[in-house]
Amino acid sequence: MAESSEGLGTVPEHERILQEIESTDTACVGPTLRSVYDDQPNAHKKFMEKLDACIRNHDKEIEKMCNFHHQGFVDAITELLKVRTDAEKLKVQVTDTNRRFQDAGKEVIGHTEDIIRCRIQQRNITTVVEKLQLCLPVLEMYSKLKEQMSTKRYYSALKTMEQLENVYFPRVSQYRFCQLMIENLPKLREDIKEISMSDLKDFLESIRKHSDKIGETAMKQAQHQKTFSVSLQKQNNVKFGKNRYINHDRIPEERNEVVLKQALEEEDENEEEVLTVQDLVDFSPVYRCLHIYSVLGDEETFENYYRKQRKKQARLVLQPQSSMHETVDGYRRYFTQIVGFFVVEDHILHVTQGLVTRAYTDELWNMALSKIIAVLRAHSSYCADPDLVLELKNLIVIFADTLQGYGFPVNRLFDLLFEIRDQYNETLLKKWTGVFRDIFEEDNYSPIPIVNEEEYKSVISKFPFQDPDLEKQPFPKKFPMSQSVPHIYIQVKEFIYASLKFSESLHRSSTEIDDMLRKSTNLLLTRTLSGCLLNLIRKPHIGLTELVQIIINTTHLEQACKYLEDFITNITNISQETVHTTRLYGLSTFKDARHAAEGEIYTKLNQKIDEFVQLADYDWTMSEPDGRASGYLMDLINFLRSIFQVFTHLPGKVAQTACMSACQHLSTSLMRMLLDSELKQISMGAVQQFNLDVIQCELFASSEPVPGFQGDTLQLAFIDLRQLLDLFMVWDWSTYLADYGQPASKYLRVNPNTALILLEKMKDTSKKNNIFAQFRKNDRDKQKLIETVVKQLRSLVNGMSQHT
């Protein structure tokens, strides 16, 4: 039962497998067959039995089908046999027809092949035309590029290159010639860069050479503009009554109109000939190069190169020649080159964008300005000619005004001008030192003689002198001062004019100009003129007469200082009453010079007295006096009388002081002569002779050689000599010794030491001349008295020393 149930379960499975084999592709039957062997044992045998049974079934079905269709097959074969004959006939006919068609189509095939070839050629031609239509514009543009390169239209050539690259080359990029062109464009660009850079270098070299011409033109235009403005201002001043009076001379209105007319005519002429920087320089290389580098996308490289080269040129321009300070042309060339450089930079700044910036030009200008100031400060210090310094100042003003017109700050240049102004004043002072020296050397130091009214007015026009008494005197007459006074006054005014010239165009107020003029004039008076006067006074060849005239001259120059104040006021229109107005120090200057001259008079007068005293030839051992004063002393007194006659023109105190100084010096010289250590012996006769000379001095003093002394004031100069000589002449030693130290002493001015020295000289003389006097009683008594007096005098001297 179990086996039968198992066999029943296997049969459906075998049927399924057979169905799969029948329905499955032969290549895929492997897995199905494998399942037969994977089943139970002996399954394949049963499967084979089942397979054989299935085959037998199929064979039976095939047999049945063949039996069913066999008659139809026989009928078909029969029909085919019948058709076979007709088919052969038809084949013969078709073959014949085909032959005849082949023969007829050979000509058509020939024409058709010709048509195909033509169509191919036509298509090729059309393709060629189309390609040529694409290539020709490229070739034309490339030809245009070559032409532009040959005609140096590089900017256009770059634009053409851009069109070729962006528009034309993409259309024909597959062609070899296009690749060659594309490969050649970078080389062309480099060529253009090199050529444009070469043009730029030529341009930079050109503007370096023409900078002075550009600067000269710009400075001329600025100067003409300034001249025109000043002329207009002068005309306005005339119209509004702002005429200036200088030394009572008015500038005529007609003259101002003529000056203005000339300025206007010059301005018109200049307008016709105005040249701009574009007229002098071709800037196209810069524009081309800038555009080329902009197109090439390398604008920064160009800007850096341009700025670097211009900075190098700036340093070259700012480097002065070593001999620049010798001539004004050297300074002018220096300034014109700098102006030309910055005018070009300003033009580049305004016509290009980015090549030159305001910050760059400001930085360059600040660097240049520092260098310019240092150069001018160094080179101007070598200028010893005031005219050259003044021309330098004018050049600096024009230079500053020109660059200021282009927007460059120039305040530091005007500050520099104040330094140069001090130097200019120094050169003026040196020049006027020579002028004053020449005036003093040419002066004869005598009052100015005038013989008629014309000469009188000529002097008055040069020097402000007012003296009603002199006006009333008939001709011929004399001015009290010498010829140097009006000359000095004129030269001081000329100095003020010269100093004013530097102050012009400095953009300063009238108050500042007034202050500058007064300070420079003060320097002239207190340093230059004062120094010249002092040197003149101290010159050995200047005598007493000349010194007297110098004192008179300084007095009149001192009185003229107020007119110099008015002169400066008229120039600047600044009242002297204005607060902080500087005053002229001429009063103190001339007072100091006068005091120096007075001191020199006293010194020279004493030197003259010493010269006469040196002529003294006393016989100090004479036994009896000559009975008259010594010749040298009488000559000295006569000289003093004539000199003091000249002193009548001096101020009273000066003459009195000179006279007192002379008498005191004479008294001192005579006293020194008595007490000279080289003089060993003096006789009483010599003392008596010396007394006669002193009497003549006292008579001279009492004759009042100079008026103004009260009583016997002048005689007191000889009181020391008089009391000493009286003591020895009267031999009144008892009174002297008894009254010594008393205020009412008769010999109060006699110093014990002086008396002792003179007494010892006389003692030695007595011993020498009276060898045998010791045998006479009177002489012995006198000698003892002298010895006693000497001892007492020595005790007084020793007492004075201890007290001291």
From TrEMBL:
Q: Upper taxonomic classification of the species?
A: Eukaryota, Metazoa, Chordata, Craniata, Vertebrata
What is the residue range of the signal peptide feature? none
Q: Which family does it belong to?
A: Belongs to the SEC15 family.
Where is the Exocyst complex subunit EXOC6/Sec15 C-terminal domain positioned along the sequence?
413-761
Q: Name one GO biological process term.
A: vesicle tethering involved in exocytosis
- Where the record annotates domain Exocyst complex component EXOC6/Sec15 N-terminal, the positions are 50-219
Q: What does this protein do?
A: Component of the exocyst complex involved in the docking of exocytic vesicles with fusion sites on the plasma membrane.
Q: What is this protein called?
A: Exocyst complex component
Q: Give GO cellular component annotations, separated by semicolons.
A: exocyst; plasma membrane
Q: Which Pfam family, giving just one, matches this sequence?
A: Sec15_C
Sorted alphabetically, the keyword list is:
Exocytosis, Transport
Q: Which InterPro entries match?
A: EXOC6/Sec15, EXOC6/Sec15_C, EXOC6/Sec15_C_dom1, EXOC6_Sec15_N, EXOC6PINT-1/Sec15/Tip20_C_dom2
